[in-house]
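Quick one: structure tokens for this chain, please?
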Amino acid sequence: MRIGGGPSDKKQAFVKTKTLRPSDVRLKVRNIDEKQVTNDDLKKLFAKIGELKVCRFDRNEFGQFLGSATVTYERPEFAKEAINSYHGAFLDDKVLTVEYDMVPQITKVVQGGNSGSSTKAPNSARSGGGPQISRKGPPNGKTLRINKN
């Protein structure tokens, strides 16, 4: 006698795939002139919005500056406000690009079977995924000033 051995008890095979999704707290800041703006300048500017976890210039494996920085906030609403405030703003005669950074997301895909459906792996306790990215043009007339005292 078998108990619980019905056809619905078959194990499904999953294949993990990595995709990218926008982070809700990590930003990528592009078009920075390292000769005019220091990492501390950038920290001061972005800390005006809210509490930072990380603020650093991006460098390659040889230590060369890549023209961008990674800024990570404690809370998603700070990241959203930073984008609204600083995207398209001038910083030392350069127009900043501030957008959500892309982070890996692991997805489990059902392999075989009839449905071909996929389910997301439970990566975090939060639901709703990442923020929506707006593709509207930059706001006009914003010029940022950093006190270098």
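The beta strands are 13-30, 52-59, 65-73, 90-91, 94-95, 97-111, 118-120, 143-144.
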